[in-house]
Amino acid sequence: MAIVGYARVSTVGQKLDVQIEALEACDKIFMEKESGAKSERKELERLLEFVREGDIVKVTKLCRLARNTKHLLEVVDFLDEKKVSLQVLNLGIDTSSPTGRLMLTMIGAVAAFERELLLERQAEGIAIAKLKGKYRGRKPTARAKKEQVFELLAGGMSKSKVAAETGISLSSIYRLMD
Question: Is pTM beyond 0.85 here?
């Protein structure tokens, strides 16, 4: 039996330190810096492949594992099939018991509901700000660097290197060329 931890942050600027400290008693910890909105995450997939019957997967918070109820339940079902339990440390939930599984499902549904409400309020706020002329969206960074992009391309630099050099996406480079 192995105790396996999973730690994730969404952006490069965030740190995993607090999660790793909470998971230090684990035999192995899978860590990644990837958006939770993505259901396909390399380290999560490696963890799911790694665990065996009788293992325990620990996460510090539910939001580190999944952002929506459907994905959460898919992960838990996969772990159940492998006879692996999940423990969510900040909630004291353990899926090895029926009560723990029920609590996990309910809390996951509430978290997904809260996220939908947040996105709805954000969209409403943006719509109101647009009506008042106070919201203009983000600045067009690619168009502001158009001359620099064309100079670098004319100098023989590849599109992907120009994107890295200017800090704009490759798709923006292609849009500027149209």
Answer: no
